[in-house]
From TrEMBL:
SUPFAM superfamilies for the chain: RNI-like
Name of one Pfam family that matches: LRR_6
Identification of the protein by name: Uncharacterized protein
Record keywords, A-Z: Coiled coil, Repeat
Coiled-coil residue spans: 131-158
Lineage: Eukaryota, Sar, Stramenopiles, Ochrophyta, Pelagophyceae
Length: 618
């Protein structure tokens, strides 16, 4: 009803969302009433009934009979069905609008990258044909963006029309003709008092009690209405958190007070607490926007005290907010050594801006772009940054969907870089081609990389494992830590890596967890470590490779100092054998958590570990 909408708009919802929420609340109320009443099958109304009779019912003040109540219930169910259809149409329009907006954002990011390429090509003037290709791409992108904007305009018109129809239908159909305004307001207030608290939170909603009491024909209606209402309340919860005024102060988003304190401290104000770390600005998970990032970067550049660590993870900084920090990195006064932007919305354009700044920066040591949807489009810019930058030592690109094409470009820059020590490209949908490119870069005499994380890329499989094995066998490889967990290397890949370990003199830690390695692959690793006289491997992780069998005992008696075998199926017989021979092992730490051992086997292992002066986890 219209009286519900002003109260919902006070929570930060737009008029359209308030209307949708009002419709959803009415649907929940009607559906629950239908469930509790459990009416009989409705009798179709005769064709002689007029539309006015459908809404008016019996005369005012005259009680309805049993047949009249049944007809009224039938009419109410028809109105609810019409409202539900319109709400579904509105939700479909919302989804289509979001998809078009996503496409528009992608095109805008591509246009930003093309403009940067055009600027670079114009400065270098290598080939006019290349410049013309970029300009043609820009013209095509401009046409695509214009088409998407027209489509968004049309969808917005349809969206507004659907909302108007919903509001009109709600005003006409939802309120009984015999009810007064005061009665409707009292009913609304009572319903809001009895509304479940789960509808106002972001947590999961359980409908088990509802489903138990509801007949089968009404359960779907209840669930659809509740789901629609929960999603609308979730949007309004976020809007109220972002737009509601701060307690005792002006309107501000969560995290704004922390931002103001940080800017004041950078300007020379004395911090009001002892949690301030000298040379560090930590505004992680403060809901910062692009504008906030620009303001903060300006304050850091003009700060009266040097800032070496800038931690901005878990915010809403997009490609528009990456420009000012990029300018900060190019500044001669910049002394920032750590920049943490994990879990933001930089995208390809934002990452390309930062990569361009790295070409001129000589102070940054640690750059964390974990989960920023970088994509393969920014890989060329990162390649150029690695070619020119000689100060960066740690680069994290975990979960950025670089794919093979992006990792190939990144590897070209890595092969010419002599400063980067740690690289994380895990969970990037990388296949064999990307892993092979990394392996070639590891064999370059220029590369100084000592720690590589390329796990959670199951597409690489055995072929990727063989490429890494070839890199480990090369005398120029300096890799000390290799994380290849979750790559599905299987026994063949484990055997290839084991053969490389026999001649490797640098690798000290190897992570092969969750790789479907069975006893043959683990035995190959154990045999290689036993035979090798030059291997320095002392930490091995084989978690979640469930079928290792007797290979567990063989691995424990190599030269390893730390062995992790969590989530491995270990039989009581093998556990007993391991306990009896544990005193002859060089192990100093053994992890056997969640291996399915009973109490007696665990007790025997604890006693053996205490006698061998070994830290064990069971």
């Amino acid at each position: 009803s219209p009286s519900r909408q002003p109260r919902l708009q006070e929570c930060g919802a737009s008029p359209e969302r308030a209307a949708a929420a009002a419709v959803s609340e009415m649907m929940v109320d009607d559906a629950m009433e239908e469930v509790s009443s459990s009416p009989k099958a409705p009798t179709p109304r005769s064709s002689s009934s007029s539309d006015g009779d459908e809404r008016s019912g019996s005369s005012e003040g005259e009680p309805l009979g049993e047949e009249g109540e049944e007809v009224e219930r039938y009419r109410a169910s028809r109105r609810r069905g019409a409202l539900n259809d319109k709400l579904s149409e509105l939700q479909g329009l919302n989804g289509e609008l979001c998809r078009v907006n996503d496409r528009l954002g992608s095109e805008l990011r591509r246009r930003e990258w093309s403009l940067r390429r055009l600027r670079d090509e114009s400065e270098d003037v290598p080939d006019p044909s290349e410049v013309e290709v970029v300009r043609a791409e820009l013209r095509r992108q401009a046409e695509t963006i214009a088409g998407l904007q027209n489509e968004i305009t049309k969808l917005n018109g349809k969206h507004k029309q659907a909302c108007k129809v919903l509001v009109d239908r709600l005003a006409l159909d939802a309120t009984p003709a015999t009810a007064t305004v005061e009665e409707v307001l009292e009913e609304e207030a009572e319903m809001l008092k009895q509304a479940p608290s789960a509808l106002c939170t972001r947590g999961p909603l359980s409908c088990s009690n509802m489903s138990e009491s509801a007949p089968p024909r009404a359960t779907g209606c209840v669930w659809n209405a509740v789901f629609s209402l929960v999603r609308t309340w979730d949007d309004m919860w976020r809007a109220s958190k972002l737009n509601s005024p701060a307690p005792g102060g002006p309107e501000a988003r969560p995290g704004q007070s922390a931002l103001r304190r940080a800017i004041a401290a950078l300007g020379g104000a004395v911090p009001d607490d002892d949690e301030e770390v000298e040379g560090e600005v930590n505004l992680s998970h403060c809901n910062l926007s692009d504008r906030d990032a620009v303001e903060l970067a300006g304050a850091v550049e003009a700060a009266k005290r040097p800032v070496e660590k800038l931690l901005l993870g878990g915010n809403r900084i997009g490609w528009g907010g990456a420009g000012r920090p990029a300018e900060l990195l190019q500044s001669k006064q910049c002394v920032v050594t750590t920049l943490n932007l994990r879990w933001n919305w930089l995208g390809e354009a934002g990452a390309a801006r930062l990569a361009g700044a790295l070409e001129l920066n000589n102070t940054l040591i640690d750059l964390d772009l974990w989960k920023n949807d970088v994509g393969p489009g920014a890989a060329a810019a990162l390649r150029d940054a690695l070619r020119h930058n000689q100060s960066l030592e740690r680069l994290s690109l975990w979960g950025n969907r670089l794919r093979d094409v992006g990792v190939v470009q990144l590897s070209k820059g890595l092969a010419e870089n002599s400063s980067l020590l740690r690289l994380d490209v895990a969970d990037n949908h990388v296949g064999p081609e990307g892993i092979e490119a990394l392996a070639r870069a590891l064999q370059s005499p220029t590369t100084a990389l000592t720690q590589l994380s390329c796990g959670l890329n199951p597409l690489s499989a055995v072929r990727g494992a063989k490429a890494l094995a070839a890199a480990l066998a090369a005398p120029t490889c300096r890799l000390q830590v290799l994380h290849a967990d979750g790559n599905l290397v299987a026994d063949a890949g484990a055997a290839a890596l084991a053969a490389a370990l026999a001649d490797n003199t640098s690798l000290t830690e190897l992570n092969l967890a969750s790789n479907k390695i069975a006893a043959p692959g683990a035995d190959a690793v154990a045999d290689a470590l036993d035979r090798s006289s030059c291997s320095v491997l002392n930490r091995l992780h084989l978690d979640s490779n469930t079928k290792l069998g007797p290979a567990v005992v063989n691995l424990a008696h190599t030269g390893l100092l730390e062995l992790t075998l969590a989530h491995v199926d270990l039989s009581p017989r093998h556990a007993s054998h391991l306990a009896d021979t544990l005193h002859r092992s060089h192990l100093r730490a053994l992890n056997l958590k969640d291996t399915g051992l009973d109490h007696d086997a665990k007790a025997k292992l604890r006693v053996a570990a205490n006698q061998a002066d070994l830290a064990i986890k069971l």
